[in-house]
Design brief:
Four copies of one chain form a homotetramer. Chain A has 211 residues and is mostly helical. In chain A, 72% of the residues lie in helices and 0% in strands. Chains in contact: A-B, C-D. At the C-D interface, helix 6, helix 7, helix 8 and helix 9 of C face helix 6, helix 7, helix 8 and helix 9 of D. Chain D binds a DNA duplex (21 and 21 nucleotides) through helix 1 and helix 3.
DNA sequence: CATGAATGAGTCTTCATTCAT
DNA sequence: GATGAATGAAGACTCATTCAT
């Protein structure tokens, strides 16, 4: 994710079977290198080597290194966004406590299912290209959460989008703290409970008639 | 912040005036380059040039590039931690709503006083050396917040460190969202109010006898 | 046209129609890519793509990239040489003024009929393999011109080959200037007239008995 | 000389003595590599190696390979242009035969003093960046020649710039033929005489009252 | 001490060519 | 025969770091 204006879209979609395998290997390899070596040492050479192919093949499918990283990041972010959207849809009309609990549980499940990957991708998200992707996917999630909030029977939100933005960001903070290691022991254990408490309390502060 | 094992401490303390001035210039230059060019293009040459000295001088004060970046990051994080500590000390014994409001206001003031710098340093914090610093300073803040929470007359916290960790992290999330741009319009305007609401509600959910 | 020792002859003669069509497509594509992208970006992949075939097919007809380029260049140079030869043959025995005018007009017609192509091929001719081809074809033209000069009734040339060489080269200079762009406005308009004047004057300086 | 828009100007002028030596070595090395290996194999690595320095040093003085090549080409073209300009200035007011003879002799001296270098630079001049330089310098020479022609007492030129353009280009053709090798034996020997004859005849065809 | 020239390992990226399908 | 995926050598360029002046 450096600067400059270059296409970040994949180059071509695999036609033959070999291709699909190569692309899959590249993805897996990228994540592994990212985890084991960090973004700084996540070079095309290393990726290709770990994937068991050649740099040339990498460039057959991605116009440059950043496009590959962007693809990986997109995949991850979309899976999280999908989970959140699904959760929100399923809890349309649910009362605040259940809505909050589900949102937390869905988000955590998505983010913590592959913790190493999630953690490694923070560095990718930091890059220029990453910020755009993060923003795009965040928007999707905010919309979904806001819609769920609006449909809650036991609270009224004057600015659901704002509330959703705060809520989601507030969720991301602790998750990041956890993933980046260095969290106090037992942190993960009560994370879900505490985050549910956090959001429930926050949402309920908007209880109909409150304020 | 790449890998390798090298000393990250400045080489000598600025005893003389000239030294202090040079170091100051280097710090300022580093931040400017970081903001204008990004971590990737924040090279020793560019830093020295903007600081009005030479690479040679840079290496007189820092054993390597990462040490310089670490110094900058440390400075920033410590200023934030200091603010948080001071705030917590000053509100020892304060009731939850005032404690929450002060914490939010202090943290925001520290983080948003130089937004560009805060934003740029995210990238530095991502690096190997950065994670350690972030963790260290976070711990200091957590202790301070936990102490304040314990002293609150209107609530009882079974695990104040845990609560403080969640609370601080929950603060960092939205702030990062804001700094990384792409936040909805009007986000900054109500950030303080919403975060205060968030923390107050969260802390009050621990009200004595609650649960 | 890089170095190395490799056969520069086409691999097989297009006996079948499909072959002929493919070869033709490759030729046309090569010229287009050459014009649009320059020699540096005139890659086998791009040529094949524009020709609507695959690299594999390209290598069915040419042992390597340089052979293809050589074929294109040869074709061009031969067409020019053919024109010059024909013109000289047709003006065997013509007096100097008419001979000069015809030579100029024939040469210009050949070189300027596809100006973009002519221009693009200069780069190809610069390459190792190109020099040989240029030399070979130049020789043919020199012979033709020399023969025409010798047959002129109104002049005598002590060294017709030398005179022909000078004359032809003197023609090529201005044409190159024109093709490479950057010629003064109106240059093309009077080129034929001026070149005719140039050669006529030069030839007539050899008028029988002159000097 | 590839495409793209990049600065072709040298990066910094040598301040220390070492620098000047390095730059000189780079120039000499570039010409040697160009002559011995051709433009295609004239890589930064090879240049640096032959110069006895490192690629890094090369990039200290030139922002990219093309800038170095452009510098070399400029040097050459300017020396030729200077010679031509001086010659023209010195023969201001000279009659056509002497003017022509001097022009030819000056041009040949400049172009043939380092034949290998002159030849090798044709390839450089072919590139994008080269064309501009060639055009610029050609213009200078044309102006000089045109001025000289206008001052000739024994001829009148309706369009001196046009005549100068033709004359110079007509000179360049045979010189290129010679430099590119493959010229008939004895070609070089009578080149000056023949070119003088060519230009004199051409110019005299414009004799006052002629036509 | 300050300077800035030199270094060269390490990046990304391209492209001619081969060969399995 | 045709296709296009795979290969990897080779090129341009950057940058942290050193060290002579």
């Amino acid at each position: 994710m450096s600067a400059a204006t270059a296409p970040l879209k994949p180059r071509k979609s695999p036609i033959q079977d070999r291709s699909a395998a190569t692309v899959e290997a590249l993805h897996a390899a990228t994540i592994q290198v990212l985890i084991r070596e960090g973004l700084g040492r996540c070079t095309t050479t290393r990726i290709a080597a770990r994937a068991g192919t050649s740099v040339g093949s990498l460039y057959q499918y991605y116009p440059n290194r950043d496009a590959l990283l962007a693809a990986i990041l997109t995949r991850h972010l979309e899976s999280v966004a999908d989970t959140v959207e699904r959760t929100c849809r399923e809890h349309h009309g649910a009362p605040v406590p259940r809505a909050a609990a589900s949102l937390v549980s869905g988000f955590l499940a998505a983010k913590l299912s592959k913790p190493a990957e999630s953690k490694a991708l923070y560095a990718v998200a930091e890059g220029r290209g990453g910020a755009v992707l993060v923003a795009r996917l965040r928007e999707r999630m905010i919309k979904a959460v806001a819609a769920m909030l609006e449909s809650a029977p036991d609270a009224h939100f004057d600015d659901p989008v704002m509330t959703a933005t705060i809520a989601l960001s507030a969720l991301m903070g602790p998750v990041r703290t956890l993933l980046e290691g260095r969290a106090p022991p037992g942190f993960e254990a009560c994370l879900e409970e505490q985050l549910t408490l956090l959001l429930t309390a926050y949402f309920q502060a908007h209880r109909a008639g409150a304020k």
